[in-house]
Amino acid sequence: MAPEASRPVISRPATWLPRTLHPVAWWLWALALATVASATTNPLLLLLVVAVCAVVVAARRTEAPWALAFRLYVVAGVLVVALRVAFRVVLGSGTGTTVLLELPEVPLPHWVAGITLLGPVTAESLLGGAYDGLRLATMLICVGAANALANPKRLLKALPPALHEVAASVVVALSVFPQLAESVVRVGRARSLRLGGTRRSALRSVVVPVLEDALDRSLLLAASMDARGYGRTGSVSRRTRWGTGALMVGGLLGILVGVYGVLDPTTSPLLRAPMLAAGLVVGLAGLALSGRVVQRSVHAPDRWRAAELLTVASGSVAAAATLLAGAPQLYPSLEPLSWPQLPVVPTAGLLVALLPAVLTPPASSARRPALAAPRVRA
Amino acid sequence: MIELASFGIQYPGAATAVLRQVDLHIDEGELALVAGHTGTGKSTLLRALNGLVPHFTGGHVEGRVRVCGVDTRTTAPRELAHLVGYVGQDPLAGFVTDSVEEELAYGMEQQAVAPRTMRRRIEETLDLLGIAALRDRPLRTLSGGEQQRVAIGAALTLHPQVLVLDEPTSALDPTAAEDALSAVLRLVHDLGLTVVVAEHRLERIVHYADRLVLVHGDGRATSGAPAELLIDSPVAPPVVQLGRLAGWRPLPLSVRDARRSAGPLRTALVGTSVPPVRGVAPDGRLSTPQLRIEVSGLVVRHGGVFALRGVGLTATAGEVVVVMGRNGSGKSSLLWALQGGLDHDGGRVLVDGRDPNRLSRREVRSLVALVPQTAADLLYLDTVRAECRQADLESSVRPGTCRRLLESLLGGGAGGAGGAHGAGSIDDDTHPRDLSEGQRLLLVLAVQIAGAPGVVLLDEPTRGLDYGAKARLCSVVTSLAGQGGTVVIATHDVEFAAAVADRVVVLADGDVVADGPAVEVLVASPTFAPQTAKILGPAPWLTVGQVAAALGVAAALDAELAREPST
């Protein structure tokens, strides 16, 4: 491949320059894959889902700390499978006839009837545990992929403006953790200079300075945010603010009553779907209105472009292909034992979900998404 | 631009008002310097300019503050954000986001500035403050000076009319402080921004200031031309003290001006023997000084980084060794290794002939006392009394020892400038957090040396101390050394180093690059020379005190240095 510089400019439209994709696009893609996983116990399909996730993550993740967490999710997945299988061995389910290992059954008192400890280990029960575990593990890994690909802070930025205050507090809380860890280490070191009496005072001697430090910092941060215009209302009138507030609360109440109505069949039908719908409409109106009232802008917002649409589409294709496929191939038979087959349609769908690995712009860890605006230098 | 009319503020629960009847007028384009001892209300005055006082802090307000024609009493700080940019002491504590570019955008996002304008202003600000190379860096990985410049930049992107800086250099080393201050000066001179800045180390900035605002501590504040106000102000940088001593008028504020007036003084001092800095002649110590600290070939590694690469150091009883060098040059590592709190990867550390790494914590405590950089981390009890009692237990000494020690550290006991600011007596029931910075440092020191260890290690002790508290600390160090103790101090503060050091060791990247008598190392160095040395060089004068002693006016100067600011 030719080096970057010698490439003709035309072959790379500006939208395909290295950038990170909209975080919501990655989440939708990953959730679609998780839907596939939830709809099957076919180990071949599940492993294919994991493979698709792994390839795309390897191709498009950044150098950021959260991107390195994918490995942890895979480890967690392996643990889930191992635990499931181990449970099947210990609490022998007794299903199936293909005995692999004859373990002595531990006699249990009669009041725990229905639970057997150990006993013969059958291939059917082991496989059943493994399939179940694999399904759970795959869904876990899909979430891990989304986490690795999408910047959590940018995800919060993508929230509707009305939820800005909530997003801001989450962002602040997220950045407090490294500070807290730092101050624990520092105080711990200082603490080693003094000898403690009892263990209780030893704990106190670390907790008190760390908490004092955290409180001091949060006051300073609050002052700084205040001084920099956080929460300013500007020219918005008090009436508008009260109006949007009333709409939001009213909508939420409507939704609450509606959900209750749907879940409780004895309520009047008017309180069910119509109430839920009305609550949703009012709530969304409040959200939209307060969004317009909030006077803020976002620096370098993530935008939906072709690559984002393609990513979401590829995920949806995979999900649709699996949901439309026939059940027998998605749930391979355990009794009688049979070798799972790779069904054609879902497999093809999953291969489509692999496309973002090549068809999205490469991630660059350092740069944020490029803006369409020309760069003006002073 | 800024107008204070009979302004006063009394915080809820406080017995007296912090500020009373303050009248102040700051014109457009001025650089106003707010000076005064710690705890006199400098921060309160600054925070009143953008409405944080009283909107954020609460309190009873009198009079009026108008900034750009807006009354801060009726306008909240967030509504003033586009008029007044405010940067606090610790830049890291004020950061809301975690990367440079996002931080610069934050204020503009709150003001709903259009994305294109935002992008353009970010680029402009990056260039203005010379931080373009840092744009994508996480804020936590920046050095102190870089963080302070980013914080200033974040305030500037809103194009405020006034920039308020509360001790922008108090947490920085000299180079980083230079960085931040030169950025501020550029804003004043190139953009004509009105800047109000509070600063402890006046020597860094006073010669650039158009107006000096002195906060006296009794609620009053006076303002005027720096050269006039400094003639009898309670706080004064060494250059001004020397000017007062020599009677130079107009009072020089910069080393350059002072050196131009210093010809006659230099001539007068020729042939005068230079008195010792700390009042104890070097040969007046023990005839065969006992070797206290012996370090050779010390290697310390943090992860993959070598903090110390084969450092050697010796110190004898009664000696004060000052360790200097940039941030990250290994000063703190050296101190912690001496205390035994750090595993080393090579070399030998002996304190009084024993390796602190092999001793129990109790034994180390009786041998070495370390006061770490953030001294307050050591305190965790509710009252000064409880802290002292706990220290007595930890050092296995008779009850009351620590408390008596604290009294003597606070004043009276050790000769010299007793009664300097902040060192008055402390009530037993005071919460340690309510002490002034200087008092808290002395409390930690008392807690640490309750067991009378022979070696005392101080890591950046002058951080946040005003001139009075520094003078107090100086006399404490002198008396510790006078009693045969060995004191090792890591510091950036050249004036403090000049006032206490027998020997200076300079570290760079984990190596010792200079080790010798203070006079030899300090006088010739452009970065480490104190102001007196710069003015009177190449003659080996380090402090104003020495000059005063040589001229026979010691008593007068002592009185001046020790003057209570608030009375």
How are the strands of the biggest sheet of chain B laid out side by side?
6-7-8-3-9-10
Given helix and strand content, the structural type of chain A is mainly alpha
Tertiary shape of chain B: globular
Overall pLDDT level of chain B? 86
Largest sheet of chain B: 6 strands, mixed
Tell me the series of helices and strands of chain A, N- to C-terminal: HHHEEEEHHHHHHHHHH
Q: What percentage of amino acids of chain A are in beta strands?
A: under 5%
Main β sheet profile of chain A: 2 strands, antiparallel
Approximate helicity band of chain A: 55-70%
| Measured distance between first and last alpha carbons of chain A | 36 Å
Overall structural class of chain B, as computed from helix and strand content, comes to alpha/beta
With helices defined by DSSP (H or I, 4 residues minimum), what is the helix count of chain B?
Answer: 23
Helices of chain A, by number, come to 13
Q: Which blocks of ≥5 consecutive residues of chain A have pLDDT under 50?
A: 1-10, 365-378
Distance, first to last CA of chain B = 32 Å
- Percentage of residues in DSSP E strands of chain B: 15-25%
Rg from alpha-carbon coordinates of chain B: 24 Å
- What's the number of extended β-strand segments of chain A? 4
Unreliable stretches covering 5 or more consecutive residues of chain B? 412-422
